[in-house]
Amino acid sequence: MHRKRKRPHQDRFDSPLHGWKSSRRSPASHTYSRCIRRQTAAQHLLLALMTISGLGCVDGPLYSLKNANPYYRAQWSKDRELGPTYGDRIAELDLLREQIRDMDPTKQREWANNLERVIKHDPSPEMRAKAVDAIAYVQDSATERALNLASGDDNEKVRLAACRAWRVLGGSAARSRLMTLAQNDSETTSVRQEAIESLAVFDDAEVRRLLARLLDDPSPAVQYQVAMTLKNSTGRDYGGDFEAWKKFLAGEDVAAAPAASMADKLWNALPSL
Q1: Tell me: the pLDDT tens digits for 118-140?
Q2: Residue 242, Cα to own-chain centre: how many angstroms?
Q3: Which residues contact 85 (CB under 8 A, 6 or more apart)?
Q4: Dihedral over Cα of 102, 103, 105, 110: its sign
């Protein structure tokens, strides 16, 4: 009697949502699936690296990695034959920042005009920020023009550098610009914090009145920065007790809070359940 052969169970594709379903799979099928998964994972990793590489430019996150790569360094050496590279310009601005304060006034004015052009026209935010760092040490009308321009730059990195530069430059113009940035609700929190921190060197009645108002700012980060700035400029420490800071700024003699014991510090550092 002829016995009917059983057909082996075959894999089937159930739906795009459920994928391949099978009640029994051969070792070869498992091996093939593992290869496919590894290949897919490698493709995803390659795609991610290509995407990041596409996003990274001279200001991108891969600059440091490229700097350690002999291939890119060789390419940059060829580029250097055509003119200064991005890395060369960054290094030159860092060196200029260190040396410009010791130059004679004539040289300082020449460099201030050059740096003003960089801040105004260079397409790289990193270059503009480096130029801002360097020009801060020159007492010249070009410096104030450049820093006013940098304070309204589209890139936050440049505006942060401008806050630090105003602090170095000093003077009434610096104080006025920093006060404007500190209380600008449409500015980013980071820039406002940087401006408030820089106001610590201008410890006068007008600045204190501004800081007292900012203790009521809706941003906790701004409030905290105000308290830290007041601590650095006055030598008092009321921590996060904003009411105590307000009373102090109003002229009251407020006793400083007792220092917390080590046991209290350790207890407060424990996460709450």
Answers
A1: 999 999 999 999 999 999 999 99
A2: 28
A3: 76, 79
A4: negative
User: Which residues lie closer than 8 Å to 222 by C-beta, 6 or more apart?
Assistant: 189, 192, 193, 196, 214
Prediction pTM value: 0.67
Token match 């008092």: residue? 236
The string of DSSP letters for 197-211 reads: HHGGG--SHHHHHHH
Task: Tell me if 184 sits within 8 A of 153, measured CB to CB.
Answer: no
Q: Write out the two tokens for 27.
A: 């070792």
| 162 burial type by CB count under 10 A (0-12 exposed, 13-18 middle, 19+ buried) | buried
Q: How far apart are CA 153 and CA 132, in angstroms?
A: 11
Place of tokens 């795609």: 47
The answer to whether the CB of 119 falls within 8 A of the CB of 135 is yes
Q: Write out pLDDT tens, residues 20-75.
A: 333 444 444 444 455 545 555 545 444 444 443 334 344 455 555 566 667 666 76
Amino acid at 199: L
CA distance 269 to 266: 5
CA distance 118 to 133: 12
Report the alpha-carbon distance of residue 172 to residue 166 in Å, rounded.
10
Between vectors from CA 23 to CA 21 and to CA 24, what angle results, nearest 5°? 110
